[in-house]
Amino acid sequence: MSVSATAVKALDVGKSAFPDATPRKNELIFSVSCGNSRLSWATHHGASDNFNPELFWKTPHLDEKDDKDTHVSILSRNLPDKPHDCVFGEKAASSSNAEEEANRRGALVAVYVISTNRDQEERLRNLWSSIPCRFFVMRGGDFFHTNEGRYDSMGTDRLASLSGASYLHGHPALVFDGGTATTYSATNRRGQILGGGIGPGVQSKLKSMSRDTDALPEIGPDEVISRLNSIQKSGKPFPTFSRCTKDSMMSDVLQDIAMKGHHVIGQWLDKAYDQGNQSMPATSMFNSDHKVMCTGGDGEILMKLLQPNFGGVLESSVRSTATKPKMYDLEHSKNLQHYGIASVLSSYYNKRMGEGTNFHIHIGARVAKAAGGIVMLGTVTRLESVGGKREFRINWDESGSEQVSPENVAEMIKLFESEGQGKSKAPAKKKQAEDNGKKRAHKRAKPIDRFTKLVEESDPTSFIGNRVAKDFDGECYYGRLTEYDEQDSPAFWRVKYDDGDAEDYLQSDLIEALCYYEKTKRNDPG
């Protein structure tokens, strides 16, 4: 297979890269984030590992001094040994060697760029154009659609980080990004973007004081880190009432960020986890551990400030909300944006391969596993994240649970269909996805073919407000359709049962529930 050296793909500004940018077989995958102060690079695994990042490194911005060298030489200098050899082979960096290696591999290099810096974006484009590759600048719509709450002015870097957080831990997600600006961005339990905030970062605040006044000194980033380290070693936090000018400046700046951060976390816990009419869709992972992600150049500082009692960096008042019992878990990730890219790549690749990401059909499924000469029976209860990979949680009927890959779940469902049915009754009320610590009853209806024409020919939203019923082990459950959601594929109707449980109906489920209600409506208490 011969690969053209001119096969560089550039996108028009504002246009989504996908599905054209979906990874191809055997491609070497790189991602680069162009920040305000440096470049962050990564290589990625292939499809079998969900395109998760493999190797990370950072470099200074590309500048005019590089222009005296050839683009291929500059690219070579910015690659560590392993990525360098993958691109050029164990040879000198040249366009011909890169083309020879691409022909040997039978595939190009694919480069995915997140940029808030047009100059660096253009310089990167020029570097990668020196070898056979496909070059894509990612856009906001690659990570979140407008019907998921994305607004036009929301930065691609923030969207990528938010996508990375939800990829690793599910929704709701909250990301604090500390850099030139300190930002926070959040989603609710349905994966809808709540919004966020933007303010000056630690260094921006300190620089503004020294720049705009004659008396206040300049405090660099190294001095801030050094002071924080000495505070943690001594166990003596910044005093609120400081008698040192530099400590007064740093203490005030850090208090601003810390107090705001704790307030934001409290608001997120209240708003994002409120069930209301936004129950978790079965296709998404649920952030049951209340993970809060910190990233960016000042990510480590944010990690300290957002801990209960401010991580010992600042003095705490007994009245401070930061002294309350810990209701969330902080995690520092320097490379969230690259995980956000992995999320997009794996999603589009699976769709192209016909697998899609519609795992919800397995939630509530009965499964079987041969173990020690017996057949264990269980129920798939939810989708979880394990190191960026998606696995199902299975609760076994007798006792215990385990995480299983999507491939193994499919085999277990087949085994149940051939070996498990009739050997043991399912629990009286098997529960579907765990939602905010409570399991929702998964009601199953008997197969019914009626009402099909009505549902297929009517406006899907016209059924909102209709009463429905389902039979489960001889007991009738009544509920009401509350919404229609066509953002996922396939679309579904949300039903809220009178006992407080909620469930998603596909079209076949709706037909059965409407028909069964017609038979039992005389007993409807609602």
Task: Please explain how this structure is put together.
GO terms for molecular function: ATP binding; pantothenate kinase activity. InterPro entries: ATPase_NBD, Tudor_AtPTM-like, Type_III_PanK. One of its GO terms (cellular component) is cytoplasm. Homodimer. Belongs to the type III pantothenate kinase family. Helices cover 32% and strands 25% of the residues. The chain is α+β, with helices and mostly antiparallel strands and 526 residues long. The chain folds into 4 domains: 28-138, Nucleotidyltransferase, domain 5 (2-Layer Sandwich), CATH 3.30.420; 142-339, Nucleotidyltransferase, domain 5; 359-441; 452-523, SH3 type barrels. The strands form 5 sheets. A 5-stranded mixed sheet has the order 3-2-1-4-5. Strands 8-7-6-9-10 form a 5-stranded mixed sheet, sandwiched between helices. Strands 11-12-13-14 form a 4-stranded antiparallel sheet. The longest helix is centred in the middle third of the chain and has 28 residues, at 245-272. It is globular, with a radius of gyration of 27 Å. The N and C termini lie far apart (67 Å). Mean pLDDT is 81; it is low at 1-15 and 423-448.
